[in-house]
Design a protein that fits this description.
Structural class: alpha+beta
Strand content: 15-25%
Mean pLDDT: 87
Number of helices: 3
Low-confidence stretches: none
Helix content: 25-40%
Largest sheet: 5 strands, antiparallel
Number of strands: 7
Radius of gyration: 24 Å
Shape: extended
Strand order of the largest sheet: 4-3-2-1-5
Length: 170
């Protein structure tokens, strides 16, 4: 059996990346990823951009049961935590499930340290002089576009007057 190399970012599952090829014909200039869904035994093809957006590589310490999601995939209940990793999505560095609370705490500590490092990197990026100004500008532009889109939708929609006309008070 092929070993899983990737999992879906949202729905989990076991996937193996088989090959990458450059597209031809209408797909010229794009890279294609051939992969296999190991649970269904089906091979599929997608673009490399789609592959990177929707699938992630399995880390060595990801739980082999839930593939790092922390949910119970065996019974299909996403409200229940995985029994192998206790809902953390990660196991010990050797790939085995934590056997006691101290080992579980060690796994949780590794996760917390990784998240703190990621947060520190994001804060450093945000501290860069032009980043906050760019974020504020993008937010304001999104708000303006949303307001304009709502008004345009209102103007194109039917009114409540005769023949669907709008009564504007003139």
């Amino acid at each position: 059996m092929t070993k899983p190399t990737h999992t879906h970012r949202e729905s989990g599952g076991k996937y193996a990346e088989l090959q990458q090829h450059e597209g031809a014909g209408p797909l010229a200039g794009q890279w294609l990823v051939i992969y296999e869904d190991l649970t269904k035994g089906i091979q599929s093809v997608t673009t490399q951009a789609d592959w990177r957006m929707h699938y992630r590589q399995i880390k060595p310490d990801d739980c082999t049961i839930c593939m790092g999601t922390g949910h119970d995939h065996i019974k299909g209940n996403k409200d229940k935590p995985c029994g192998h990793c206790y809902g953390l999505g990660r196991v010990r560095k050797d790939g085995h499930s934590p056997v006691d609370l101290w080992e579980l705490a060690g796994v949780a500590e590794r996760i917390i340290i990784e998240l703190e490092n990621d947060l520190h990197e994001l804060r450093q990026v945000a501290a860069h002089p032009g980043v906050m100004e760019l974020i504020k500008r993008e937010r304001q532009e999104a708000i303006d576009n949303s307001i304009a889109e709502q008004e345009e939708k209102w103007r194109r929609g039917k009114g409540h007057g005769p023949g669907g006309q709008r009564h504007t008070g003139d």
